[in-house]
Amino acid sequence: MKKLMLIVLIILVIVAMFSFSSLAADLKIAGLFPGPISDQGWNMMAYNAFKAAEKEHGAEIAYTERTPVSDFEEIFRGYAQAGYDIIMGHGFQFGDTAKKVAKEFSNTVFIVTSTDISQGPNLASFRTNDPEAGFIQGVVAALLTETNKVCYIGGMEIPPTINQNKGFRAGVKFIDPDIEVTSAFTGSFNDTAKAKEMAKAMAQKGVDIIIPDADQANLGVVEAAREEGIKIIGCSIDMGEAYPDVVITSLVEDFPGAFVSLVGYVLEDKFEPKAYEMGVKEGAISLAPFRKYEDKVSKEDMAKIDQVLDDLKLDKIDLAKYLED
Hints:
Number of helices: 10
Strand content: 15-25%
Oligomer: single chain
Strand order of the largest sheet: 2-1-3-4-5-11
Low-confidence stretches: 4-22
């Protein structure tokens, strides 16, 4: 009897190993992105995550850019029927459709970003800590502004941008509550002209540092910054790589690293249908190099920035104390 049980156990282990290696070898990942991967922001971040998964896990990847709301369900279902193992909707707006389609394909893992939804057995969500991200940007802006006027320009007024803006205002308040903070939303992540118009208007009111959080429309803020002589603290990716002349630093979200980890959980059978949130403590949020502006930041200000990052890692700062309702 013991020998028979041992044989059964060995067979089960072999089957499990075969299943794992088969999935790892043939892993297929698909994504629905709301905008173009060339936006130097949110959608490029997702594309970079897919390329990281392709490199790290040997995955076959596919994605749809500029996905219309009317096509969400059809595209989700199409990728599932085509045998993709993991399908990601990049943005909270994909949540309801993902929950609906996930029920029909229990062997496919669905992931929705920038939200906290979940649904057993196969739907999870992932988001970075948006208030924390904005808080760091606010701290840097408050320390470096020379006019004591700073601004946040978001795209659509949705939970991720609302929360990042709240965090930004909190970070400024943490350093100096007397600094004038302005917030504005373009209503679109693609309206470059409107973002530029808003940024120029802010500059004419004395704002000298702007946080652009409008994806493709961020390019309008960059144009305005060059024309008006103002500076930018970037969002999502290291915007200073492309625009070192106007970007002081950027709040970088290591979405690729987090996504690669989630894919690893699936491959290792550690995936859970829950909401994953990551911030400074988990290494998912950091500041990009200051590059040409490093010499213009005083040692005292840089020490303060580093101290804030360390305190956030150790949960020594109560963000709720500074967040506005």
